[in-house]
Amino acid sequence: MTATTASPMLTIGELAAEVGLSTHTLRWYEAQGLFPQPIPRTGSGRRHYGPEAIGWLRLLSRLRESGMPVAKMAEYSRLVREGDGNEAARIALMEAHSQALTEQIEILERCREVIDDKVALYRRRLADQSV
């Protein structure tokens, strides 16, 4: 029989550094119910995170950067905590967010067209002045 090594646990500071968030943010995320399972603690009460927390927090960061409200992130986290059987609800939540992103991208593209038109106008004016 071979000995196995346990996955290294991360302190809150180590995890914060790894994912680019502050320790304050990690504590706040925990208070908001944004983790898929309770955070284990040492006997002295210090948080210890498994390596899976890195991927989870990177997902949450992308959701937040893309404009997902914290309440929706908490809803998604709750669904994950509940386990298998609610995949349809998870899909619906993610599809709704994806649709909102599509609409936001379309708006931003229209905005960029207006800005690009202004840049082209000013470039033509400069070209006309140099003749």
DSSP E strands, number: 0
Distance between the termini: 85 Å
Shape estimate: elongated
Poorly predicted runs are none
Helix content: 55-70%
Q: What would you call the structural class?
A: mainly alpha
In terms of topology, how is this protein built?
Blueprint lengths: L11 H8 L3 H9 L20 H14 L4 H13 L4 H43 L2
Helix pairs in contact: 4-5
Describe this structure in words.
This protein is mainly α and 131 residues long. It has helices spanning 12-19, 23-31, 52-65, 70-82, 87-129. The chain is elongated. The relative contact order is 0.09.
Short description:
The protein has 131 residues and is mainly α. It has helices at 12-19, 23-31, 52-65, 70-82, 87-129.
List keywords for this structure.
elongated, mainly alpha, 5 helices, 131 residues
